[in-house]
Design brief:
Elements: H1 3-82, H2 87-169, H3 173-186, E1 190-194, E2 197-198, H4 207-214, E3 219-220, E4 227-230, H5 243-249, E5 255-262, E6 271-278, E7 281-288, E8 294-302, H6 305-308, H7 310-314, E9 317-319, H8 328-331, H9 337-353
Parallel strand pairs: 1-4
Antiparallel strand pairs: 1-2, 3-4, 5-6, 5-9, 6-7, 7-8
Helix pairs in contact: 1-2
The chain binds zinc ion (ZN).
């Protein structure tokens, strides 16, 4: 293998590790914050349970003092009854006493109810206290683990950065620039060639290009611009029926296709849609307009795409690009750079012809 390619492989590995480690370091405080938020919720629950107990106690004291007042009244009525002159007066006092006794009874019932309730309240408090204790222990553990992990990651980052610098120093400058330019918006700048295909974008190489790569020349993929390399151990083609042969075996009777652009799609920003009608079934593919990377899975629905995906189309810009939509399956997870460039060129034209409300169509980074 060429030393340049060897170094690029090392560089790619270092880039990936550095990205992974940085993401991990950034994610750790978020995890701690999530547990802390849960802890605050449990604390609030405990306070609430305690407040409910206190409120019940206050109500109970109110009932108790009402009972005392009523008992006072009753003994006053009894005293008065000793001094009454008429039977009517005596009856009236007895009546008052009965009333007061009923009142006492109803207050006692309420107190009993509160006492029964108090058991459940106490259980709530105890449960919240236990939960809080468990969460406090967990958060301390998580914090310690996060601190440990972060310092390990930082040590690893230092090592990988050193490896990265070493690898970069071993690569020809022009090649390095090419690699880094593509890696910046493709996520990777180097791709293996297998079965005559670029493994980065899944596009078939022209025979001459394939021969050059196999012959040990530095070659860049015409579709995705990644630097290509060939590994004899894994790169040799395996005999199998080609995709085009398979397609011929299942002829499509009716195919409609269309590309659409939207300046904003949910929180995804600028996207391209590829719509396809095949034998009464509509499909939709969504691509990031900057990187050409496919977003999510292909969606299939019975019907015509203009009706099924009417919402997507409504504020979109129709493109006249005559791309071969049947190739979409072959491209799998990202559009080749050449196709992406064509879509952007077509978009520019379409916007010039009919300046739609398509917010801020930005330049395709590859074109700048
Ligand atoms: Zn490629």
């Amino acid at each position: 293998m060429l030393p340049d390619v060897q170094h690029l492989m090392e560089l790619q590995q270092a880039d990936r590790e550095i990205l992974r480690l940085n993401q991990e370091v950034a994610a750790l405080p978020k995890r701690v914050a999530a547990i802390e938020a849960k802890l605050a919720g449990t604390k609030a629950g405990l306070e609430q349970a305690k407040a409910a107990v206190k409120a019940d106690e206050a109500i109970r004291r109110k009932y108790e003092s009402a009972i005392q007042d009523l008992q006072g009244k009753i003994s006053k009525y009894r005293d008065q009854s000793l001094a009454v002159k008429t039977n009517e007066q005596y009856k009236a006092l007895l009546h008052e006493i009965q009333f007061a006794e009923q009142d006492i009874k109803s207050n006692e019932d309420k107190i009993l109810e509160l006492m029964l309730n108090a058991e459940a309240r106490d259980k709530d408090v105890k449960a919240a206290e236990l939960e809080l204790k468990a969460e406090m222990a967990e958060i301390e553990k998580e914090k310690a683990a996060a601190r440990e992990r972060t310092s390990e990651d930082e040590k690893l980052l230092e090592e990988w950065n050193a490896k990265r610098n070493q690898a970069r120093a071993g690569v020809n400058e022009d090649l390095l620039r090419q690699y880094e330019r593509v890696a910046k918006f493709r996520g990777s700048g180097l791709a293996e060639v297998r079965d005559q295909k670029c493994m980065g974008c899944q596009v078939m190489l022209r025979p001459q290009t394939y021969n050059d790569v196999r012959g040990g020349q530095i070659v860049v993929c015409e579709s995705c611009q990644r630097v290509l390399y060939f590994d004899p151990a894994t790169g040799v083609a395996v005999e199998r029926p080609s995709l085009s042969a398979k397609r011929r075996a299942r002829p499509k009777t009716h195919v409609d296709k269309a590309w659409f652009y939207r300046a904003a799609y949910g929180d995804l920003g600028e996207v391209f849609f590829a719509f396809l009608n095949v034998d009464g079934s509509a499909s939709r593919r969504v691509y990031d307009a900057h990187t050409g990377r496919k977003i999510g899975d292909t969606e299939y629905q019975p019907g015509d795409f203009s009706a099924v995906f009417a919402d997507d189309i409504k504020s979109g810009v129709r493109l006249h690009t005559t791309l071969d939509l049947e190739q979409l399956d072959e491209w799998a997870s990202e559009l080749p750079m050449t196709e992406l460039d064509e879509l952007h060129a077509d978009l520019k034209k379409a916007l010039r012809e009919a300046p739609v409300e398509a917010a801020h169509p930005s330049e395709h980074p590859a074109a700048s």
